[in-house]
Amino acid sequence: MLREFKLPDVGEGLTEAEIIKWHVSAGDAVTINQTIVEIETAKAVVELPCPFEGVVASLMAAEGETVDVGKPIIAVDTGEGADTTRETALADDMVPTPRPEAAEAKPERQPVLVGYGVKTGPTTRRPRKAAPAAVSAVPASPPPVQAPPPPVQAPPSPAPAAGRVAVLAKPPVRKLAKDLGVNLAEITGTGPNGSITREDVHAATQAAPVPAAVPAAGVREERVPVKGVRKATAAAMVASAFTAPHVTEFLQVDVTATMDAVRRLRQMPDFAEVKVSPLLLVAKALLTAVRRYPLVNSSWAGEEIVVKHYVNLGIAAATQRGLIVPNIKDAHALSLPGLAKALAALTEAARAGKAQPADLTGGTITITNVGVFGIDAGTPIINPGEAAILAFGQVRDLPWVVDGEIVPRKVTTLALSFDHRIVDGELGSYVLRDVGAMLEDPLRMLAWG
């Protein structure tokens, strides 16, 4: 019995998705909830589990193909009502003939030779449509006694190349580097004995832009399909820019005290397992300002303004798939250590391409950290459905007047874009002024929070 699995809507009203990678092929045995395919929607890369148990009969969509929601993508033979004699005969082409003395043994878990190794599976499963050359049919008249297949042994780990220095990194750091696509051999470690730390890996992702493909000789131009995240981002930004009347205000701030506070927080046990950056205190300052001025955390609904008394804090993240804005749910209710852990988890998942659709919906106000790219300021476009977005520029050493004297200070530029239908100039100025004041003196977060 063939059962078809149709592409589901894994987000909120998504209409299509691109097939990124199949994890199974025709002839493979699959179980319920086994990951079978990765798809990319306009919001995220999602792994889809199989709802059936059986054998893959066919893949109905190719990698790279964009499929509409509701279209079948895979057919699975569940074996319900099938001719077991025929299936057993097909399976016999793939498994060794048992010894005569083992004829009474149950064959449910005999090894099935597939590709380059041995996979355990039922003998009644169908073979692949195109079996590898290493898999040969059993002769019609086998010898009386046939040796069982030798156990599969993992190949020995290759020795490091001559002159190559071993990379020192703990397993969690190696996994993080793999998820983020970072080559550990190209990083200089700052940990004990030159070991690579999580901070080193994150710094490598921020410092190195995504390399562009080298065009072939003689190619003067190329065409890149607009799809997935890029397509959704383009539509959302155009809709926002030409729907909401944008106003952007700028403020330079002395953040010397904030940078000192960041260094002190890093030494506290409560923050030992997370990366503490200036963005943490920027986020806390914005959350405090939202509490003082709730209207900045709202949305335009035609005849109404919806003021939200909760904050799903969006953090704009540049990834290989394009710009995405996952958000921290109920960020207003988190302690400072909790906010730090949520920020770390959110950015790590985004850069690894593991942000889920639920992470990318429901945001109420956003921060974009353009400072990591060496940029002082910009005019960010408001996310659709929100009233404001705060841009945080790079922190630089600049001459600053303190008590009538010019001294070097840590200075940044903040830029607040807001929807002028909701937030007028006075309110926008108050919000930006207060965020700047809290970053100039972080103790104000305690007084105003």
Automatic annotation (TrEMBL):
Reported cofactor(s): (R)-lipoate
Methyltransferase keyword on record:
no
Tell me the InterPro entries matching this sequence.
2-oxoA_DH_lipoyl-BS, 2-oxoacid_DH_actylTfrase, 2-oxoacid_DH_E2_comp, Biotin_lipoyl, CAT-like_dom_sf, E3-bd_dom_sf, PSBD, Single_hybrid_motif
Low complexity compositional bias, start-end: 130-139
- Which Gene3D superfamilies does the record associate with it? 2.40.50.100, Chloramphenicol acetyltransferase-like domain, E3-binding domain
- List residues of the Lipoyl-binding domain: 2-77
Compositionally skewed regions (Pro residues) per UniProt: 140-158
Q: Which residues form the Peripheral subunit-binding (PSBD) domain?
A: 168-205
Q: Does the keyword Acyltransferase apply?
A: yes
Keywords from UniProt, A to Z, are: Acyltransferase, Lipoyl, Pyruvate, Transferase
One GO MF annotation is:
lipoic acid binding
The record's EC number reads 2.3.1.-
For region Disordered, the annotated ranges are: 115-158
- Which Pfam family, giving just one, matches this sequence? E3_binding
Provide a GO CC annotation, any one: cytoplasm
Family recorded in the similarity comment: Belongs to the 2-oxoacid dehydrogenase family.
Name the record gives this protein: Dihydrolipoamide acetyltransferase component of pyruvate dehydrogenase complex
Q: Which organism is it from?
A: Sphaerisporangium krabiense
